[in-house]
Please model this.
Amino acid sequence: MNRDIQLIVIGGSAGSLQVIFKIFKYIPAEFPVPFLIVLHRNVNFESALDELLSVKSNLKVKEVEEKETIESGYIYLCPADYHVLIEKDKTFALDYSEKIHHSRPSIDVVFKSASATFHEHLVGILLSGANADGGDGLKIIKDNGGLTIVQDPDESEVSYMPHHALQKFKADFVLESGKIGRFIFDLNARA
Amino acid sequence: MEINFGDKEIDNLLNDILDIYGYDFTEYSKASLTRRLHRLYLMDKFKSFGDFSARIQTDPVYFKHAVQEISVNVTEMLRDPYFYKTVREKIIPVLATYPFIRIWHAGCATGEEVYSMAILLKEAGLLQKSLLYGTDINPVVLEKARKGIFPISQMQQYSTNYLTSGGTNDFSSYYTANYNLAKFDESLSRRMVFSTHNLVSDSSFNSFQLIFCRNVLIYFEKDLQAKVLRVFDNSLELFGFLALGSKESLRFSSIAGSYKQVDPKEKIWKKLK
Ligand SMILES: C[S@@+](CC[C@H](N)C(=O)[O-])C[C@H]1O[C@@H](n2cnc3c(N)ncnc32)[C@H](O)[C@@H]1O
Model:
């Protein structure tokens, strides 16, 4: 696989938090590609997430700020109650428009916007969840030449979201939660 | 579902809109604007970008509709309850010292933010000596704001926000329920003035002790943010307050040096020079 990956976007809902922790066990501090995580979560839960992830990963964890330039070495988290978009100059934009799939941030919104900027240089990963969000966006990532990964619905805590996505299109890889981190690590080693 | 237009087409369209109608969207955040234009294009089932662009340029009624659809008017009462708690605790006591209070809500959408503030003022016994100006670029949302009628389905959420913000009354005492609508008390709306105002092209129209502009600057590019913040600076009295949305700040603006944030968390600044 010879592609220059510039961003890895991970979308998750119910049951995805532990998977995210597992993924980041495999990612070293000097990993050259930034991550953007969009999670459905309630506001109370949110503040703890940065801290938890900071402890469990080797990268710097940061909540997305508007107009900030995306840089490697970071895991960016989408803030509660805003949609996150990406401008052509690789800066973040925030948006307070209608919820999509009852969600703000919505995974579809982030996937679509990231894909319009990064095209084949994007990896999209969709994890466990009880929501129909993410499938359309992931399909667009694939249509635009990006690489798509879906957590294996059979071992997802809540299979609805990955299952729903796989009904829409054929993802490039369907992986168990324990294999995704290693896969990303190798992907970069091969590039 | 195919979208066949991108940045170049959008730039051209925005320039044409500016020439024909005088509305300047050229310095709006492209990511958001693109998403809204794509949405409008699909919603109204256009077949080509040429048709879409021609319709916007030649049909003023359709253009109005387009402006309404591309502007994001989503809002809430007492959104970010801790923000309003800070307003109660740190701003209202200062406002109380003025003989007359003028507040500007720029980009107020359907007015929920203005009604929220009016409730806080009323509870502090200050509403009678206050005037709240609500402005927006979109006249349709202002019409709703004037009526003060909001969906009843929202009231449970608003009541929770209200209690979290430090409210101690029964939130339902502020409105009358009628089927699926809640009409807010006229004692609140009587102290409000709504009018269209375009932050991009219109200048300061009064002086205020408090200006709200929440979740509007995120739609503007940096230079436009800075320009609009200068309009606010020109409209704010010395020691007045500027309140932005929870993800907005003064960091791209030359006025930052004259302001001090009044709370470590909430996005409220005091004008010191
Ligand atoms: C997301 S709403 C924010 C509503 C409210 N302040 C809040 O935070 O809930 C953004 C509003 O800004 C208005 N707006 C956008 N461009 C504007 C402009 N150039 N001048 C005035 N208002 C504008 C939109 O019409 C919309 O009603």
Notes: Chain A touches chain B at residues 65-67, 79, 82, 85-88, 93-98, 109, 112-113, 116 (CB under 8 Å).
